[in-house]
Task: structure prediction
Amino acid sequence: MPTAPYPGRDPQVRGSSVSARGDRQVLPFALTGLLLALPLGRTLNLLSLGDETARGLGIRVEPARLASAAVAVLLCAAATAAVGPVAFVGLVAAHTARMLVGADHRWSLPLSMVCGAVLLVGADTAGRLVIDHGEIQVSVMTALLGTPFFVWLARRRDLVRM
Result:
């Protein structure tokens, strides 16, 4: 097992994929979250139409919102337990998926999972290649990628006027 670059500090506290701990312990929670999230696409599509419309189409709104939130918390907890706090991955992945396939959650949920994995592996690889004898933590690399992405997104959608 590789040693931490800073003795006495766990790499995952800083958001690193080096020696990701507890893969076998986290895997059941991650798989359960993924298996529960994929079928929620239709329900989330109906919830996005508004509470009254969703009720009219047969969705029990409060239990559906609770189930969706519980699955999101389970997936976030599993990801954080595996590699620590890594900012922007979920946000960038979800927005990228929506830009590629639109607002249909049946397509954007699986694609955002793939986009998040690609972003994390890409940021980790870039962080290992930037410095000759060391690495930049994956959390720093995702922040370096995520911050300009959200500035671009805000300016593109005319949410911020300067």
Q: What stands out?
A: The mean pLDDT is 82. The longest helix spans residues 105-130. The radius of gyration is 18 Å. The chain has seven helices and no strands.
